[in-house]
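Need Asp23/Gls24 family envelope stress response protein's 3D structure for a figure. Predict it.
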Amino acid sequence: MTEPDPPVRLHVGDAVVARVAAHRARLVPGVVALRPDLAQTLIGIAGTVLGQDRSRPSLQGVSATVHGRSAEVSITIVTRLGHNCRDLAVAVQREVAAEVSAYTGLDVVVRVTVTEVLLD
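Structure prediction for Asp23/Gls24 family envelope stress response protein:
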């Protein structure tokens, strides 16, 4: 008789969630680029001056925090003139939440900021 497998304890790191979210956000039609918001820029400057802080990983334009079985994701995007910002933000929220949830099993809340609209 074989022993049953022990229960698995899984913790998904902030960086994993941020990386999956950034990958999916870049694929949404209308997203031209991801950009760091003011807080990410200031954290980056402070990290350079004081030494890199890896406790809250941040990719360019995306930050994520995992709390138990849920995750909060903030994404800052750039689009082009002609895309409705509200519709684009809703699409990014929907697609990123679905991808992160499918990949990690976490409940996901996504905040989207449109920081720039390119005119070309």
